[in-house]
Structure formats: structure tokens, C-alpha cells
Write a structure and sequence with these properties.
Layout (H helix, E strand, L loop, with lengths): L1 H7 L4 H20 L7 H10 L6 H21 L6 H14 L1 H22 L6 H27 L1
Helix pairs in contact: 2-3, 2-7, 4-5, 5-6, 5-7, 6-7
Length: about 150
């Protein structure tokens, strides 16, 4: 996974941090389906350490939209989504911005459906699927977003 990332995107220490953060988040969620509160610290480091060129207004609006939607789902159907899912949907929305976060969401939902079909279980480690979607959106999110916009217009 790391080799593919460095072939697609030039080597930067921040890229390494993002890849390792997403890998360990996905691995933790896949193994336990529970995320501890200490994950706040690596998340804050991600915001501080990794450069992001998305305008602040876009980031704030995206995080509020994902907080509103996922928080409403959490309130209405508590068994459908966990608190960590709501927090990281909001966090990744703030980190990626609207265009790349929509790509990450589409990929994570597709992976979730494939997980349910393959494993035949009704519970899935959604943060693992979301981490893979965020990784792809981080690398090529704008490319996929504008490809889909042009495809459907």
C-alpha cells in the first residue's frame, strides 16, 4: 500500500503520516469495531502537520453537513451508526472538503455493500471502508469528482 501511494503521489512526510493514520485507523476498526478517545490526538496532528489547500469555508461547511446528516442518523437509529463514525465523517469532511469527501463517501458505501454481500453479516467496520475511501479521495479525489460530474452532465 505504501509503495503504491509513493508511486502515485510524490514522497512527502505528510503523505506518509496520512497513509499510516488511515491504515492504523482501518486496522483498529476492522479488528475491534471500536475506536478509543485517544484517536483525537493523531487526528489533531493530522490537521496541524499535513498541509491542506482546501478553503476554510468549504471545509467548515462540509464538516457541518456531514455532522448534521450522520448525527441525525445516530439520533434516529442508534444501531445503524456509531459515535466514532459520526466523529470521523465530520473530521474527514473538514480535512478533505466537499468534493473529495463525496468521493470518499461513494467509495466507502460501495465497499460497505461489497462487505455485506461477501461476509453476509449486517454489521460492518464502516471506518475501515471510510479510511480506504479517504485514502483514494486524498490521492485522486478531484479527478474522480470532476470525472463523475462530466459523466452525469
Amino acid at each position: 500500500m505504501l509503495i503504491i501511494t509513493f508511486l502515485i503521489k510524490p514522497f512527502q512526510l505528510s503523505t506518509l503520516y496520512v497513509v499510516l493514520f488511515l491504515y492504523f485507523l482501518a486496522k483498529k476498526d476492522y479488528a475491534t469495531m471500536y475506536i478509543e478517545k485517544y484517536w483525537i490526538f493523531p487526528s489533531i496532528l493530522l490537521l496541524c502537520f499535513c498541509s491542506n489547500y482546501v478553503p476554510l469555508f468549504n471545509r467548515v461547511c462540509t464538516s457541518l453537513v456531514f455532522l448534521l446528516v450522520s448525527g441525525t442518523i445516530k439520533i434516529i437509529r442508534t444501531e445503524w451508526i456509531g459515535s466514532a463514525d459520526v466523529c470521523f465523517l465530520t473530521f474527514f469532511g473538514f480535512y478533505l472538503g466537499m468534493e473529495r469527501m463525496l468521493v470518499a463517501l461513494y467509495i466507502s458505501v460501495l465497499l460497505g455493500f461489497l462487505w455485506i454481500l461477501y461476509k453476509k453479516k449486517h454489521i460492518l467496520p464502516y471506518l475501515s471502508c471510510l479510511s480506504i475511501g479517504v485514502w483514494i479521495a486524498y490521492l485522486k479525489g478531484y479527478t474522480f469528482f470532476y470525472f463523475l460530474i462530466n459523466l452525469f452532465s
